[in-house]
Amino acid sequence: MNNIYISDFLSYLEVEANYSKNTINSYENDLNKFEEYYKSKDLLKITSKDIEKYIRTLSNLAPTTVSHNISSLKTFYSYFLKQGRISNNPTDGIKSPKLGIHLPTYLTIDEVNKLLDIEVTDAFSSRNKAILELMYATGLRISEVISLEFKNIDYDECIIRVMGKGSKERIVPVNDYAIKYLKEYINNYRPELVKNEINNYIFLNNHGRMLTRQGIFKMIKNYAALKNIKKTIGPHTLRHTFATHLLENGADLRVIQELLGHSDISTTQIYTHLTKEALHNEYKKYFPRD
Question: Model-level pTM greater than 0.70?
Answer without folding.
Answer: no
